[in-house]
Amino acid sequence: MGRSTRASSGPACGAAEVPDEVHLYDDLHAVIQAGDTASRADLPPATLLLSSLRAAEPFVLLNVSFGDQAVMTRRTCGCYLERLGWRSHLHTIRSFEKLTAGGMTVLDADVVRILEDLLPARFGGAAGITSSSRTRPRRVSPGFV
Ligand SMILES: [Zn+2]
Hints:
Blueprint: H1 5-8, E1 9-12, E2 22-24, E3 29-33, E4 47-52, E5 64-74, H2 80-83, E6 88-95, E7 98-101, E8 104-107, H3 108-123, H4 131-134
Antiparallel strand pairs: 1-2, 2-6, 3-4, 4-5, 5-6, 7-8
Bound molecules: zinc ion.
């Protein structure tokens, strides 16, 4: 679907308590966390579950996980976004299904395929045996170079 929780969260809080704190567009989405029921669904307890609130949304969401977890708070921050009505905050938003590096997001299943199939096919070796482990230098005591 290509949609992320960040799409439903608003801009950075003007009085953030942590560097990545954002407001949640809670007029667009209802957001709950998996909590104690998470273990039955094999999800982390802080998993964000989104439900759409507007009839005009292209997709109807009902407790959908996009693989993100976060700390969710409701506090008085005093910034202009709170005055507009957005009082819920998210911070420490992390994916438990995707890996992001260098601006690219890759699903965890794809990371395994890349590490176990594509890289060994291109550069040799096998899963679990990397070129660095094959060429690891001997331990040398200081003074015996
Ligand atoms: Zn704020």
